[in-house]
Amino acid sequence: MVARLRTFPHLHFFGSVGKWRNREWLLKILVLLLMVGALATPVVIDYADPRNRNGIDIVLSIDGSGSMNASGFDVKNERLSRFEIVQKIASDFILDRREDNIGVVLFGDFAFIATPVTYEKEIIAQMIGYLSYGMAGQNTAIGEGIAQGVRALRDSKAKSKVIILLTDGEHNSGTISPKEAVKKVQQSGIKLYTIGIGKKGEFDNALLEQLAHDGGGKFFIATNAIELQAVYDEIDTLERSSIKSEKHTFKEHYYQWLLVAAFGLLLILMWKRRIL
């Protein structure tokens, strides 16, 4: 008896199974990698988010007494008053301190918090533009200006807190003396910087220098707008420290997308096994 050779007309099916087996191994490896990646819990931290900033809390305590109406402080713009020049330089300083929270205090016969300590720099800069000399009276209550700065930082959680006091006069008003105010600074762990602007003899060098010394800061003198800009530039180099705690770090997790991809590939593998 002669055996007959039987043929199968669809041999190409066998070739495709071999190719699928190779692809199947690749998919299995890919699923394994995706699951390992998901277990690693990939995360992206948004350091641009305000909650993840590194910086300090700063209060600008600005003299708004009548003497701040004097002109000639800027040789390029002699018509501008000292107060208008301070407004411009302080606003630029605020907008450049992107990592920090900043507030503003205005003082004259008394002092008040013009803006609370906040991250909204544009709003603070706008508010400074609305201020004017004489709003808090014509005299100079340096003690009040410092004390209100301490009050503005009362709820601050920052490790580094700073008051930058600027004046062109001598302490001659208010119910709080500079000596009492600087004690509040020391008790609150705040660093105090003082700036005297104007001609020699217009402000109390000795007092401002002593206040800065007792407050752990530095005393600056600015006789014109260029020097005042240089002062703020120097203060701008202050060391930064962490404002917010770790629990407020803004994180976005991506492990779920890896799990979805792995699950999708598993479905494909199961479907392929069913039809083969």
pLDDT averaged residue by residue: 84
Question: What is the third-level CATH name, the topology of the largest domain?
Answer: Rossmann fold
Distance between the termini: 36 Å
Number of strands: 10
Helix/strand order: HEEEHEEHHEHEHEHEEH
Q: What class, by secondary structure content? A: alpha/beta
Number of domains: 2
**What is the highest CATH level, the class of the largest domain?**
Alpha Beta
Radius of gyration: 33 Å
CATH architecture of the largest domain: 3-Layer(aba) Sandwich
- Low-confidence stretches are 10-15, 244-249
Looking at CATH, the homologous superfamily of the largest domain is von Willebrand factor, type A domain
Per DSSP, the total helix count is 8
How would the global form be characterised?
Answer: elongated
Strand order of the largest sheet: 5-4-3-6-7-8
Q: What's the story with the biggest beta sheet?
A: 6 strands, mixed
> How helix-rich are the residues, as a percent range?
40-55%
- How big a fraction of the residues is strand? 15-25%
Describe this structure in words.
This protein folds into 2 domains: 24-42 and 256-276; 50-242, Rossmann fold, CATH 3.40.50.410. Strands 5-4-3-6-7-8 form a 6-stranded mixed beta sheet, with helices on both faces. The chain has a two-stranded antiparallel ribbon with strand order 1-10. A hairpin with a 3-residue loop joins strand 4 and strand 5 (111-118). With 276 residues, it is of the alpha/beta class. It has helices spanning 12-39, 82-96, 121-130, 142-152, 178-187, 205-214, 225-235, 255-275, and strands spanning 43-45, 54-55, 57-63, 101-107, 111-118, 161-167, 191-197, 219-222, 241-242, 251-253. The two termini are 36 Å apart. The protein is elongated and about 95 Å long.
